[in-house]
Every structure is written in structure tokens, then in C-alpha cells.
Design brief:
Number of strands of chain A: 5
Protein name (chain B): PTS system IIB component, L-Asc family
Number of helices of chain A: 6
CATH architecture of chain B: 3-Layer(aba) Sandwich
Shape of chain A: globular
Shape of chain B: globular
GO molecular function (chain B): protein-N(PI)-phosphohistidine-sugar phosphotransferase activity
Strand order of the largest sheet of chain B: 2-1-3-4
Number of helices of chain B: 4
Structural class of chain B: alpha/beta
Pfam family, one (chain B): PTS_IIB
InterPro entries (chain B): PTS_EIIB-like_sf (IPR036095), PTS_EIIB_2 (IPR013011), PTS_EIIB_2/3 (IPR003501)
Distance between the termini of chain B: 11 Å
Radius of gyration of chain A: 14 Å
CATH superfamily of chain A: Mannitol-specific EII, Chain A
Oligomer: heterodimer
CATH topology of chain A: Mannitol-specific EII, Chain A
CATH architecture of chain A: 3-Layer(aba) Sandwich
Largest sheet of chain A: 5 strands, mixed
Strand content of chain A: 15-25%
CATH class of chain A: Alpha Beta
Helix content of chain B: 40-55%
Number of domains of chain B: 1
Keywords (chain B): Transferase
CATH superfamily of chain B: Response regulator
Radius of gyration of chain B: 11 Å
Order of helices and strands of chain B: EHEHEHEH
Largest interface: A-B, 30 and 25 residues
């Protein structure tokens, strides 16, 4: 893997507290806003996407990929990372509860694909995923991701 | 063969699904065109597709299409995708 996800993440939050799925998505949205990736309107758009289409963003057991479509609220493509202290129910039939929320914003339909590939590569490996979820601090998450990129 | 991977927005989950479906198809040695689409586009694209890949939540929104609709639960699980896709492409 050549792409270092640690450098692609605009913000990392670990062991965060969220009372419900909306709060969990807001944390991911706050991370995108803090990283200069989106405006606050995008956070609401991510929540609306789930209200309209259901919790399909819970793409694997325990993992939600919060996102909406390219819009004026997206300033650049980017990702935020939020691991949750207590798992949150999104209402998904098979993949609840969620422990990791990744916020995704894209300027168009192709610019972010290499980053998504890297995310999929990292999170589909159970051992690496376990290490990332156990990380107590953003620096620990960065260290794990950076160590993967140099291999 | 044409396969459409469908999600609500067309930038996130469908792109992941497309990537992993392409990996599975390559491993099976099947030549297929996999396209990622949002739900609005997908209703049209699904009319000419052989297979639609999507999640449980979105399947009802695709409606009545001639394509075979396959529901994937874990988008990262290549074994699940292989198991569900293999009978449909062979």
C-alpha cells in the first residue's frame, strides 16, 4: 500500500461519546468541518441521506461510511475518522451496532477513489481493524495507518 | 455482462461495492463491466443490466427491473460477494 491514510484523514477522534446515530454522524461531520473539508451544511446532508435511504451506510459489521453527494457544502475531498466509546445502533439489519464512523466528502465521483480503496484495504483486514479500534488516541491511529503505508 | 453497483449517493458505498465486485470477477475470470450508480440513475441503468448489487435497505427502492438483484450485507467481505455473485455470473 503506497497511500498513507494517516495523511488523508482530515481529523481523527477516538473513543468518542455519541448518544445515537445522528450524534455519531455529527461527530464525523464536525471532523470534516474542522479539517476545512466541508461546511456544516454537509453534516446535515449526511443525516438526511440516512433519513431518506435508511442505514445502508453501515457497509460492514460495526462500520458506517457517512457521506452525501458532491455539493456546494463540499470544499475539497476528504475523510474523517471517529471511533466510538460505546457502540451505537443505526437500525441496520445485520451490521449493527456501529463502533467506527468514517465521514466522506467528495468533490466529484472519481477524485477520492484511491482513498476509498485504501480504506477498504485497511478495514477488510480484521487484525488491523482490531488494532485501529483499540487505539485510545488519534496518534495511535495515525501510527497504525502510517506503519501500513510503509510496508 | 453488465453489473450495476447501487447506493444512495453514488460516491461511497457503491464505489466500494464496485471495487470488491471487480476483484471477485477477476478472481473468477469473468469479463464484466461494473458501474457504480446512485439510486436515481440506477433505476434506469438497471433496465439494461444483467445484475444489480446493492444493500438490503436500497433494494426496494430500485423497484421492478429485469436484472437479478443481489443483496450484499458486508461490503468488505469478498467471500460473501463471491458466494452470492458466482451463481449469477456462471
Amino acid at each position: 500500500m503506497t497511500l498513507n491514510l494517516a495523511q488523508e484523514l482530515s481529523s481523527i477522534t477516538t473513543k468518542a461519546a455519541a448518544s445515537d446515530w445522528r450524534a455519531a454522524i455529527r461527530l464525523a461531520g464536525d471532523g470534516l468541518v474542522a479539517g476545512g473539508v466541508t461546511t456544516e451544511a454537509y453534516t446535515e446532508e449526511m443525516i438526511t441521506a440516512v433519513e431518506e435511504h435508511g442505514p445502508y451506510i453501515v457497509i460492514a459489521p460495526g462500520i458506517a461510511l457517512a457521506h452525501s453527494r458532491p455539493a456546494d457544502s463540499v470544499l475539497k475531498s476528504g475523510l474523517s475518522w471517529v471511533s466510538l466509546e460505546t457502540p451505537v445502533e443505526f437500525g441496520h439489519a445485520s451490521n449493527d451496532p456501529v463502533t467506527l464512523v468514517i465521514g466522506l466528502a467528495a468533490l466529484d465521483k472519481s477524485a477520492h477513489i484511491d482513498v476509498l480503496k485504501a480504506v477498504a484495504g485497511v478495514l477488510s483486514n480484521k487484525e488491523i481493524r482490531g488494532r485501529l479500534e483499540a487505539a485510545d488516541t488519534p496518534d495511535e491511529v495515525r501510527d497504525v495507518l502510517s506503519s501500513l503505508a510503509t510496508k | 455482462m453488465k453489473i450495476v453497483a447501487v447506493c444512495g449517493m453514488g460516491i461511497g458505498t457503491s464505489v466500494l461495492l464496485k471495487m470488491n465486485a471487480e476483484k471477485v470477477l477477476a478472481a473468477l475470470g469473468i469479463d464484466a463491466d461494473v458501474e457504480a450508480a446512485d439510486i436515481g440513475v440506477a433505476r434506469g441503468a438497471a433496465q439494461t443490466a444483467d445484475i444489480v448489487l446493492t444493500s438490503d435497505e436500497l433494494a426496494p427502492e430500485i423497484g421492478d427491473v429485469p436484472a437479478e438483484v443481489i443483496i450484499i450485507e458486508n461490503f468488505f467481505d469478498l467471500d460473501e460477494i463471491t458466494e452470492k455473485l458466482t451463481p449469477a455470473v456462471q
